[in-house]
Amino acid sequence: MQITITTATPLNKSQRDRLVAAITKKHGSEMTIEEIVDSALIGGLQVTLGTRKLDTSIHTKLATLQAQLKDSSHA
Amino acid sequence: MNIQLSQILFQIINFSVVLGALSYLLYKPLLKILDERSERIQEAQKAAAKTLEEQSRMEQTSKATQHKADKEAQEIIAAAKTSATAQKLELLAQARSEAEAHLEKVKKDWVTEKAKLASEMKQEFAQAVITVSEKVIARSIDVKTHQALIDDGIDAVLKSL
Predict the structure, then answer these.
(1) Contacting residues of A for B153, CB less than 8 Å apart
(2) Which of A34, A75, B16, B93 has the fewest beta carbons under 10 Å from its own?
């Protein structure tokens, strides 16, 4: 399984270990992990597990808020 | 003076002969001429009366025709006036209807444009808020906060696994 972890600043060791341990426990050890640092996220992280994507980044939260504001302006 | 009976008799006979001759030669033709003249006069009078009658009849016909023409003209004028009035009212109603429709359209367009402008302003405002928020947040987050955000994100990911 391909796993992509994107953060605004690099993960420290304890964070990486905690995340990898939890994913390994759930999906097994047969996986490839790719770490990407992208300041555009502003803060938080995005984890892509195959086709599944878990996103807690500030950029995505602000984008969601912007979409909600735009939707409310159409109503 | 001797009055002779024979002469008197002769004169009487002579007068009678002359009278008879005059009567035969002059009186009857004169009567005939007078009768003919009288007949011509009567015919002329009849013709004149007939002409007068014809003239009177023609005058009556002319008057009747004139009266009829006047009446028809008045009817035509009245009908034209009525038609013109109806047409005028119809045109006025049509113009009013078109004006109202145009006004309604302008109002509707104005409301639509106003709503569109308001929506665009809200969207631009939202975009500006987000852009400013991104910059402000990006500048205000330090390393410690970054790590805390990543820790919180990891907690959320672990919960959702």
Answers:
(1) 44-45, 56-57
(2) A75
**Do the domain assignments include residue B30?**
yes
Domain that holds residue B19: 7-160
Model pTM above 0.90: no
| ipTM of the complex model | 0.87
Residue-wise pLDDT for A11-20, tens only, equals 999 999 999 8
Query: Residue A45's pLDDT is what?
Result: 94
Q: Which residue of B has its CA nearest to A74?
A: B119
The answer, for B115 touching chain A at a CB cutoff of 8 Å, is no
Residues 6+ apart with CB under 8 A from A47: A3, A4, A5, A6, A19, A53, A54, A55, B157
* Rounded Cα gap, residues B135 and B132, in angstroms: 5
Domain that holds residue A64: 2-74
Q: How many domains does chain B have?
A: 1
